[in-house]
Every structure is written in C-alpha cells, then in structure tokens.
Design brief:
Blueprint lengths: L8 E3 L7 H10 L3 E2 L17 H5 L11 E5 L9 H8 L4 E6 L2 H14 L7 H7 L2 H4 L4 H10 L5 E5 H6 L1 H12 L17 E3 L2 H16 L3 H8 L2 H7 E3 L2 H4 L4 H22 L11
Parallel strand pairs: 1-3, 1-4, 2-3, 4-5
Antiparallel strand pairs: 6-7
C-alpha cells in the first residue's frame, strides 16, 4: 500500500525559462512543499523505478502544506510523460512557461558552456547538442498535453509575463494552485543568471557527478548542492560582456529561421499573437 501523498502540480518545462525562480518562490511559500531536488525526472528518465520510489521524495512534507509539487523541465518534451502523468494523477495541475525560442536557446547554450559540456561557438554547439534547438520547439510538446488534460488543469504562460511583472505572475500561479497570495519573497530577485566556470574541468566533473548521483537516487542531495550559494561562488563567476557578445546577429537570424514555422503553429494552437518572438533584439 502506498503510504505517501503524491504531488498536486508539476512544472513541466522548458528549462531556461524561470524554473529556478519558480522553485525558490514555491519553496518559500508556507503552504507549499517542493522537494529539495529540482528535476526528479520520474515521468521521463526514472519511470521504471516505480511510484513508491517517486512518492518518497514527498514524504518529508508536513500536514500544514496544502499543496505539493515538483519542477522537472524534461516532462514537456518527453512523448510518454503526458499519458504517464494522467494515468497516475488525472487531476494533476500542469504549469509551463514558454520563452522566446531564440533567447531560450542562447541561454541553454551558455548553460552548457558553464557546465563545461561544450566549448565551441553556438552553431557548432547545436550540431553537438541538438537539444538546444529541440527544447525551444514548443508546438508538438504543448499539443500533447492539451490533447490529454482538461484545459483548466493547464497553466500555459509566457516568460515575458514573469520578466515584466514577477509579483503579479507569482500571484497568478498561487491562484491557479490554490495557495494564499502572500509576499513570501522578493519576487523581482533573479535566482540564477548566466555564468561561466572558474575551471572547465571541475565544472564538467561536477556535472557528471550530479548525473551519477541522480541515477543512485540522491536527487535531493544534488538539489541542495546546486542551490548552495557557497558552491556556486566557488565554481562560477558571472558572464562578462565579451562572453555575451559571442552571439552574433547572424547567429540570431540563423536561430530564428529554425523556429518561425513552429512559432506560427503555436500561435494558431494557443490563439495568441507571438509576432514579437520574430523580432530580433
């Protein structure tokens, strides 16, 4: 018999779209519990571990927590995840924050560089890591969830809303989840800006170690280390202006061309104007 309560909501992705900010907001809310590990990957990578394995991540919650949830950015793009989630938790509330695909891809590129996983220009990096592009193609991924879940269980939002009015955005999420609208933190504070490693070798070693730890079921430990301010200061430093200028206007045009058709299809699906995503800045 299952002895642990399961989650009420999932943030499904994509990454580089405010998920670390959302994690901190929900972690700070006294009525909400999220496990220390951001990204449990149960419904995609670790589904074979079984439901009891997954529910143990929620066993340390207290009776005073009205809402339990998880933030795993891979669920949006995994083809099996929507049905797995619905089969196990048909009333699950689903959140996603869609970001301008060019901006998201550039952020993803810098993230991989900061982890010591790549050290090449962005177009070469995409050849090595097609996920930089694929994780910015939203139409098919969003449609899979719309085809399975009732629309009122989906909170589909846009990164611009978070960026322009973070407090209002947080309160919309609280309302969707049934949480009190509390000023539980400084909503305007950026949680994790783009960084570069002090040592490419050490960053790569740490990344591989975290992946291995997840495989061993130590995701909560990984989460605590990743969120350690001391660890982040030791391993990384902010990007310099020259790093950011490494992305040329030509790179941006090339990236946009990869996304135009998908943006058009998403606009039709969501009945929303996303023309501003086609304007390069």
């Amino acid at each position: 018999m299952m002895s642990h309560r399961g989650p009420d909501f999932l943030y499904i992705g994509p990454d580089k779209s405010g998920s670390s900010w959302l994690f901190k907001v929900l972690e700070s809310h006294p009525e909400c519990y999220v496990p220390p590990a951001k990204d449990l990957y149960y419904f995609d990578k670790y589904f074979e571990n079984g439901l009891e394995w997954y529910l143990k991540f929620f066993e340390k919650t207290s009776p005073g927590k009205k809402v339990l949830g998880e933030i795993s950015h891979g669920y949006l793009f995994d083809e099996s995840a929507p049905q797995r989630i619905y089969d196990g938790f048909p009333h699950m509330k689903i959140l996603t924050t869609l970001r301008n695909p060019v901006e998201r891809s550039i952020s993803h590129y810098f993230y991989l560089k900061s982890g010591g996983l790549i050290n090449v220009d962005i177009q070469s990096a995409i050849t090595e890591r097609p996920g930089i592009i694929n994780s910015s193609l939203y139409y098919e991924a969003v449609k899979r969830y719309l085809d399975i879940f009732p629309r009122d269980q989906l909170f589909i939002s846009y990164f611009e809303d978070l960026k322009d009015a973070p407090r209002d955005y947080a309160f919309r999420i609280f309302d969707f989840l049934g949480l009190s609208q509390l000023d539980c933190m400084d909503f305007s504070k950026k949680v994790r800006e783009a960084r570069k490693p002090n040592s490419m070798f050490l960053a790569k070693v740490m990344k591989q170690a975290s992946l291995r730890a997840r495989d061993l079921g130590l995701a909560n430990l990984v989460g605590k280390v990743k969120n350690s301010e001391l660890m982040n200061k030791k391993l990384y430093r902010p990007l310099e202006k020259a790093d950011k200028e490494n992305i040329s206007d030509g790179d941006k045009v090339w990236l946009l061309n990869q996304f135009v058709e998908d943006i058009d299809r998403l606009q039709d699906l969501m009945d929303i104007d996303l023309a501003h995503w086609k304007v390069l800045t």
